[in-house]
Amino acid sequence: MVEWSTVAYMFPGQGSQIVGMGKDIADAYPAARETFEQADEFLAFSLSDLCFNGPVDDLNDTYNTQPALYVCGIATLRALQSERPDAVPAFVAGHSFGELTALAAVGALTFEDGLRLVRERGRLMNAAGTQHPGAMAALLSLEIDAVRDVCAQARAATDGVLVVANDNCPGQVVISGDDETLAYALELAKAAGARRALKLAVSIAAHSPLMQSSADEFRTALAATTFKTPQIPVYDNVTATPLRDSEAIRQELGAQLISPVRWRESIDAMIAAGAETFVEIGPKDVLTGLLRRINSTKTALNLNSAENLQAFIGQ
After folding, report:
1. Which of 37, 116, 153, 162 has its CA at a distance of 20 to 30 angstroms from the CA of residue 82?
2. Of these residues, 48, 132, 176, 207, which one is catalytic?
């Protein structure tokens, strides 16, 4: 039996999308199917068809990726709740834009408002990427302080922009900035002992100062959105602490676009508060993989298929 007072839900960010996402769950659970239909109607195009059938290039477009993952996460959660109304976690967190999914999951904003925000967030990030092109890279086997040093050296050498974007887990840190500075940093990282220094297949510098224009405009959308105080602690990316009220949510979501994702610290904070079982609600298993590297003693589950969902419902 699941001890719900020790369960944490995790919602992924970009990189977890895959053609076919959510289809078997929507086929098996009316609550999930209705969620996709609700999104299709709200967006006035078939997001469900894009999720289920692709094409992959359109699904990977930030403008589509964020609402696709958001809807898939909420659809899966609703399917779970339709069978297990008692499935109420004690902790919730979302990685990067997944924080909006987390907030919708606990009722801090409506499904429609969350969908509107993720769509706008994706649009603004694409626009900022066009205005201020950049790139991101994953560095493996370097600890966070060493990565910060690499970024500082690269900035000093090029007078460019480069920062830590994601502190995902021990030995996996993502950096973000302009192309020239990032390329310089990759060589520095290899010299510093990085096992891999891999440029990611993205054309924006997320969670860096190059997203400033998108953050400014996104704050306007946040100001026009109604938020409620979360009844379940939602650990945010910027401070790795629970969001306390609606104003804190607005401030954090606005800052998040230009701030690092402190995922490792968020997981550690939930563990310190009593979390023992972490359930990833999304189409892949990215966050469960990170959890195992952060703390291998905790239980990691993912609800990325109808089969896994049914098994979890039966617990």
Report:
1. 116
2. 207
